[in-house]
Amino acid sequence: MTLNGWMQIFVILALVAAVALPLGTYLAAVAEGRVNFLRPVESVFYRLAGVDPDEPMGWKTYAAALMALNLLHFVLLYLMLRFQQFLPFNPAGIGPMSPRLALNTAISFVTNTNWQAYAGETALSYGSQMWGLTVHNFLSAATGIAAAIMMVRAFCAGGLKTLGNFWADITRITLYVLIPMAAAMTVFLIICGVPQTLAGPAHAITLEGAHQVIARGPIAFQEAIKLLGTNGGGFFNANSAHPFENPTPLSNVVETWSEIVIPFALVFMLGRMVRAPRQGYAIAAAMAMILVAAAGCVYAAEAHGNPLLAHLGVGHAMGNMEGKEVRFGTAMSSLFTVTTTGTSDGAVIAMHDSFTPLGGLVPMFLMELGEITPGGVGSGLYGMLVYALLAVFVAGLMVGRTPEYLGKKVQAKEIKLAMLAVLILGISILCGTAYALNTRSGLGSLGNAGPHGLSEMLYAWSSATANNGSAFGGLSADTKLLDYGLALAMVLGRFGFMIPTLAIAGSLAAKPKLPESAGTFPTDGPLFVGLLIGVVIILGGLQFLPALSLGPIAEHFVMLAGKVF
């Protein structure tokens, strides 16, 4: 590790903090309806959809509207992928996706996972990329933010029977936040050299005289929302490691920044909406500390290098550069790895399968925590709030008081729902991995034997359940078992976690908001930050320790012994 590498990491984090604070204030204004300069445009959409944006919704109605919209868009995306050969803008003449791969892909983009068991440049037409994937990058991101806003409203006052209107929330989030930010970033990426064209593939003659087909297309706009919306689905199979998605070190800085700026801004939005900014700072501090520690662990592991390569006489003065871009280096590759797996983004600038065992363990562990550091847009905030409720419950048990958080009593119903949400993640990841590794199809998908083979499968189920979408590249994912199995994991990870969370919001909203007293456990100081981190690691992460011990940890000791599978 070098001082220069650490300076690069902290400069990006400082840029995130500088923008996330004012952006959080702006997001609070949007959530509270104080930003309305596009009200005439909003009204057109409401009239076309036949909805009343002022109709109050309880949590069940809000959840039903959310699920109905996502179900409708899943069906539309599935049909689009199955019949993409009939869509305009298909200069390469790409045919339809298979039924099971279309199902997997449609669920993937609706759930903000963006798992890609295909090569985007050869499997999708421009029409599918624009009207299918890019549209759902906006939809899934707006859905997550809307769910987070709804949960925050539950803490704003007491005796609430309604928590806003889903149709108004998703429209305003898209119009006032996602589209302007994505448009600005698109212009920046085009300036950096990212293509944005409807022309067909380019043709070139190489230095050896061979003919080469160079894929291109409407990339810049999809790249922008892919990162800002923590989606991660790339136009190209190589994702953000491809020079047409991420052409320069400067574009890499902005792309890394864009993955985590909205998730952190949403935490500061919480503080503004509950009129207690320090509450947002405390949660942001817990997220940031885990993120920085994770970046340090990956950086240390990758900078140390792979002793197996050293024994072969391969120089590793720059660390373990296998699978990494020389133009980005070890420090930036390490930071991007933890930002993409600490959120539900899943974009990559380095191949995680080529990391050292401990370097690959960290992104896997971040996903298994539930991707809350800082997490996906919206999902990171409401996921961390679930852990905050568990933290105050643990504190209440230790001091013998009824736990409270942001003025709301936390009782048995909320804790049962919180544990249901947390356990769904563990059941999906561990049971899915165990089942896959006990089938011929699952074992046939592995590119490696031994501990690394286990890591490949564990990573896949962790990624799908956490709605991340990245993978260890040795896994062959387009099989009947994994197309259907991982699709189920994506649904459980998204809606199996989200619906109990919305139910918690409905329960808390109806309770009175209590003023602070001498017996109130403070949730805006260092003690709570430490407690919250402990609860996240112990309840969220340690359930996966046995599996991680058999996978990347065992592989680490195998590597030190000079052996390879």
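Second entry:
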Amino acid sequence: MRIIECVPNFSQGRDQKVLDEISQTIRAVKGVTLLDIDPGADTNRTVVTIVGEPEPVMEAAFQAIKKASELIDMSKHHGAHPRMGATDVCPFVPVSNVTMSECVEFAKKVGKRVGDELGIPVYLYEYAASKPEWKNLANVRKGEYEALPKKMKDPDWKPDYGPHEFNAKSGATAISAREFLIAYNINLNTRDKKKAHDLALTIREKGRWLRNDDNKIVKDENGKKIRQNGLFKNCKAIGWYIDEYKRAQISMNLTNYNVSPPHQVLDKVRELAWEKGIQVTGSELVGLLPKDAILNAGKYYLEKLGESAGIPEKIIIETAVQSMGLDELSPFVLKEKIIEYAIESEDKLVNLTLGEFCDELSTDSPAPGGGSVAALCSAISGSLTAMVSNLTFGKKGYKKVWAETAELAKLGQNIKERSLAAIDNDTLAFYEMMDAARLPKKTEEDKKIREQAIQEATKKAILVPFETIEIASEAVELAEKISKIGNKSALSDAGVAAITANAAAKGAYLNVKINMSAIKDEKFKSEISNGSDALINKIDELALKIEKQIKENI
């Protein structure tokens, strides 16, 4: 699933009716989740967090900006926070299976629409910035709303999108693509704010003023203070005392967790604190984070433990939570702390028990059907390879292949996760075909729209099982590898991994073929048909070869 986050900031934090109308506009867009609404009366500003797949999130962002332009009058706005527009900023953030460059394009797409349709000047900043000096939001917003009349007469301030004219009511909007920000606190066994802040100065990117042995700030030959850089880039940190917890904390904003992951910052703070006689007792996540960030932490600690990371993702997450003490101050609830879990549908097929799934399968409802079963077989294949790999890793007599089996276990888990997603995707694709078929067909225009929708939905219904065939191809290759080096006592399980991969491929192949006759795009038909034919032959041949070899060896 491709997931992005959008965090529009609206210049209204006091009128709940306005905030409710903006929220309702966002919630009306199918496919988005409104995760959080954080109003501030003093700042007269509200931060809203929206997540979902790119297209619906872009639509929700635009509709929210439109509604804000109708309800908020910037000529009457006053607040403590810097601002220049009814929607002041609107950043797009990659969360899962989306690149930063894609988010830049999303920002540009929404920015152009806001400029063209709403007549609001739009400036791009951070990763989307069209000028180096506009990369920093503070430069874009310099002078705030009050400076806009002058900027709209200055050629150097021609906006990226929209008219180069002063919009008195809506002001201007800054739209961007940026990295995900993780708000993260480290708990200390002291009430001393100064000790916490001293550690914060050491780790934050900005660092501290350089001091000599007499604790005086060192200056250069021009009399300017010299700064000593901190240990972690993209890390903003302060020390504070929290009366509720009766302890000091290091409070951080990690603005790029790929550069400075929270688990690595934590381990360094543990080391620095220990040298000063301070104990780190745990840590706290404020808000939500992408699943990838906490999985990286769990894998990091499993590696330090010398244990396999080719295990179910919830166990990896559990390892991260325990290792980082994330549940010290309050329970770490996955649906409240991890974005992907927070937006996950409750009625997914993969959440059913095996019995419930089979019951649902056995009714006269056409979905779930063979495509979902094929994906289940692929998931079972990946799981079996991971199992045999984990039964080999760390075992006596197999030390030479520990490293390889550790990697095979991870790959098996990856196949399992992608296949489980395909179980529901196959059923959803079928329902989209049914929805398209139900579209009106009274006029010629209706018929044209309906036919296009049917074609697109049918292509999707083909591409989902085609992806299952591709995953099954990876699964059978993994089964072959583990059958050669895995624990001999689990050789039969490697064989079942190959057989279920083959069953997955053959089942998915039939689901590709049954829908192909309805497709009018000959190029699409040729590419998918030829691709699936080649894959199915390769998978079948390899699976039968593995089965034969295993029969001879057991």
